Amino acid sequence: MKPQSNARPAAPPRVVSSRPPTAEERRRAQRVLLRIRVNVQVEGKPAALEGFTHTVSASGAMLILAQGLAEGTKVTIENPKSQQKVEARVVRPPQMSHEGSQVPVEFTSAAPNFWGIFFPPVIN
Question: CB of 77 within 8 A of CB of 50?
């Protein structure tokens, strides 16, 4: 009879890749497809822009607006449903789509509850 060992099998070695991480692996927060109306107040402009979200995350969103905003533009995003506001900035130049200008924004300070949904933690 073979004696039983209580030792656990060794964990497989962690493979370290030499390739650069993909955009998905670099992402700090999960993105969720969520279409809600937003009002965007551009710093220094009197009237707010109306738009909607394409995707949202705990740290920002991809907004669809009638006009593009330059990278670095500071904005205040209002969620009319909750009447909450958050400061953000445009992080990349906008891209045009059939719906309008896709404007990627990042919150200037943490606001994980701004969209009113729960985001699971990111595991890389």
Answer: no
Place of tokens 């030792």: 7
- Here the tokens at position 77 are 């995003």
CB 102 within 8 A of CB 95: yes
* Domains, the chain: 29-107 (2.40.10.220)
| Neighbouring C-beta atoms of residue 93, cutoff 10 Å | 14
User: Is the alpha carbon torsion for 78, 79, 85, 90 positive or negative?
Assistant: negative
Q: List C-alpha distances in Å: 16 to 20, 96, 124.
A: 11, 37, 12
Per-residue pLDDT of the chain (124 residues; tens, 9 = 90+): 555 556 555 655 555 556 554 444 444 567 899 999 999 999 999 999 999 999 999 999 999 999 999 999 999 999 998 999 999 999 999 999 999 999 999 999 989 899 998 877 766 5
Three-state SS at 23: helix
